[in-house]
Amino acid sequence: MFEKIPARALSDTVAQQLLEQIDKGTFASGGKLPTEAVLAQQFGVSRTVIREAISRLKNEGVVEPRQGSGVFVLGRGAARPLRIDSAEAATAGSVLHILALRRAIEAEVASEAALRHNKTSLRAIERALARIDEAVAQGRDGVAEDVAFHRAIAAATGNPYFLKTLTFLHQYLEAGMTVTRRHEALRDDLSHQVRDEHAALVEAIRARDPNAARHAACTHLYNAARRLGEAGLG
Q: How far is CA 113 from the centre of its chain?
């Protein structure tokens, strides 16, 4: 029923495969999952890994452990948070897919930031951009500062769900961002291109031009995908 999995990201992969089987109806709502021992044997992992996977599904409202009785599947109406399998997200194709999702969201984020920012949030965006420059000047990759820059733009919208969604996506993109920023550091033309893209985005937001902000965000992230390809991740 289940695929044998590598040692990396074991509990996350087990949780994902269990969730897929639950969604398929293999384990019906209200039904009981196999015991830890049975699952451990089927997956080829330790019982500790199974317990961690069950704990994740419990925290996501998918299953409910009942002392002395086992682990039961909750009803399909239960709300579930968005989840992405970490091992799958690390593949080149998935990185580009997540980047495309980020592009769709950040285009609207930039547009909203242009319309809704105030003096305080605009200063936060400008400071975040300056910190990227400082990091690069100091010989660092600037990934954390790059993430903070885009978070500052999301915060400027006043919509907390934009910020939460981008925070969720960025955790799967930081490895790719590290590779591309190191690649960019080797070429002045790419470093200047990224700086110009960020500056254009800030200028559009400052000018309260939602269409220009949306275009600047899309351009930046289309080019980011291209740079991923040049760095060997596309």
A: 20
For tokens 């830890």, name the residue: 36
CATH of the domain at 160: 1.20.120.530
d(CA 223, CA 205): 19
**Are residue 108 and residue 29 in the same domain, yes or no?**
no
Q: Which two tokens stand for residue 147?
A: 């993430």
Please check whether residues 94 and 16 belong to one and the same domain: no
Length reported for the chain = 234
pTM of the model as a whole: 0.65
Indicate whether 213 belongs to any domain: yes
Q: Is residue 82 part of a domain?
A: no
Q: Are residues 183 and 208 in the same domain?
A: yes
What is the C-alpha to C-alpha distance for residues 14 and 12, in angstroms, rounded to an integer? 5
The 10s digit of each residue's pLDDT in 44-82 is: 999 999 999 898 888 778 888 998 889 999 865 555 666
Q: Hey, what long-range contacts does 217-222 have (CB within 8 A, 24 or more apart)?
A: 217/103, 217/106, 217/107, 217/109, 217/110, 217/111, 218/103, 218/107, 220/194, 221/99, 221/102, 221/103, 221/106, 221/107, 222/103
